[in-house]
From TrEMBL:
Its EC number is 2.4.2.18. One of its GO terms (biological process) is L-tryptophan biosynthetic process. Anthranilate 1 binds at G78, N109. The lineage of its organism: Bacteria, Pseudomonadati, Pseudomonadota, Alphaproteobacteria, Sphingomonadales. InterPro entries: Anthranilate_Pribosyl_Tfrase, Glycosyl_Trfase_fam3, Glycosyl_Trfase_fam3_N_dom, Glycosyl_Trfase_fam3_N_dom_sf, Nuc_phospho_transferase. The keyword Repressor does not apply. This is Anthranilate phosphoribosyltransferase. The gene is trpD.
Amino acid sequence: MSRFGLLPDPAHLLGHDEAAQAFADILDAGTSEDEIAEFLTALSDRGETMVEIAAAAQALRDRLIPIDAPKGAIDVCGTGGDGHHTLNVSTAVAIVVAACEVPVAKHGNRAASSKSGAADTLEVLGLDMERAGRLAEATLADLGICFLFAANHHPAMKRIQPIRQKLARRTIFNLMGPLANPARVTRQLIGIARPGYVPVYAEALHRLGTDHSRVVSGDEGIDELSLAGGNEVAVVNAEGVFMQRSHAADAGLPTHPIEAIRGGDAADNAKALRELLEGAPGAYRDAVLYNAAEALVIAGAAETLTEGVEEAAEAIDKGLAHALLNCWIAYK
């Protein structure tokens, strides 16, 4: 037995079966919390591989509580943990893309390392989290949007959360959320906070299977497409992983520094999101348009980023996105 108890020693790269068993033991309470903490720390220090990420995600998928989703539903989600404390870009993108008639099964959580997570901001806007969770399948079918609060769909994570909070550092579980969407979507825009890790993460997603997804990371280490500089983009489909670069100019948008979309607490972020949907111009709008355009291309609702920007802007300027948010909040 290794110093990690039943868990293998991460000093060596884990094969698929070994990794699958390790994460089954972790999620099924087959090993102690101290052993889990040491294992996750050692794995993070060494650097997780594509095989390990895929095995961990599959273990989480096998234990989630699923919902049914319409054909063509997508998710737009970031791993978080980038430390930039930006406004809630992916949350706004989800609303705008849904207003473009692409069903969005938004997977998210409360803030972990940021000041306001998707759930925190939506709650301040007036979305009842308990009701939104209970009616997620219905709102996705009727309105084309839902919020899948991670805690409601991943009971196996309940014992892991205190361990993660105690460690107060990035572990493989920071990467799991986007790879274990309860709606089992096969089209995704996933942002991660490590540009150099995009190919590894994308290969894990390819191993798990996807119709068309993109993994993106801004050069500044931001978990979304950044307007400040360049972006690493991995296009993932059944054929493999294809790397490319993307810049704001590719979408016909201006550049903005990261500081221009710096957020605050849930109240601040909710106010900014509401103003955005009411047509407020600026860096936040441009960041949302850029990422929404990428999501629309993934969904097959736009041919190019510039076309996607036009569609997203129209959904905002015609009040469609704002109206959708209000309908979602009022849904019973």
